[in-house]
Amino acid sequence: MLDDDPLTRIGHTSLDDTGVTAVVAPHEAGMVAAVDVRGGGPGTRETDLLEPHNTVERVHAILLCGGSAFGLAAADGAMQELERRGWGFPVFGEGAPGPRVPIVPAAVIFDLVVGDPSHRPGPEDGARAVAAAFETPSSETGSVGAGCGATAGVLRGGFGRARVETDGYSVEANVVANPVGSVVDARTGLLFGDPDQPAVDLKRFTQLQRPTPKLNTTIGVIATDAPLTKAQLKRVAMTGHDGIARAVRPAHSPLDGDTLCAVSTAAPGEQPVTDVETLGRFGEAAAQAVQAAIVDAVVHATGAFGVSAWEDIAR
Asked: CATH: 3.30.450.20, 3.40.190.10, 3.30.420.40, 3.60.70.12. Which one for 9-313?
């Protein structure tokens, strides 16, 4: 959980067994954004436009949703709420009257085996999450927003956040931890992502059963206030996946849809970072932040729907 002011606005719609988390830009100009997908079963919307060779540079929000592919409908409501607030790409040019088109990529987790499988987020829930990001930004982590129905192997997953400082800038990860793989080392009982946390009771841990079928996904947004280009952010997103691999075993399975976006919240016009070694440190900071955010999600999740939380079996 972050104590400092976050780089982005975070809003949640928590629906008990599913939900939506909106990561909204800190200013109307939006955020430069890129994406990297590593899982074998992704569920995404408008992520192709984030590739460095494509035209759109900035997004206004990114939605993280439960509900599997059904949950992508929440992005419709997110767009409508941003349009209502006057945010979006000006069709006829900046300052000219006419429609604005908010750019809102989205990614989903599979949580249909938790709670009511017919209960999925819709457009109204996406709109509520965006409105919450503007009106009551949240610092809460655990079983909130898109993390409400998350599982992490045999344990509860959730929504987590973490920040790493490097070269005078911040790198912040906002992650919905919902992996097929385990976050706990079955030999030691320690979290892969943070062995300094208490060990779980191994006897109880090895008796736990995970929901079936084994379909999951870890998704998130890595934000930095460093002025980076789309191509540079693509590298940050790629390296950020190392954080999933450090905290989850195995990671990036054919049954996961692991997707990480990376965004720069720097104001338009700032000169991009050009030093390659500095960019490398941003990538490592992203991996560290993602790893810590997954731990944050798991240790703050609460047990529900017959799935135990880490805190229930930690010694």
From this structure: 3.60.70.12
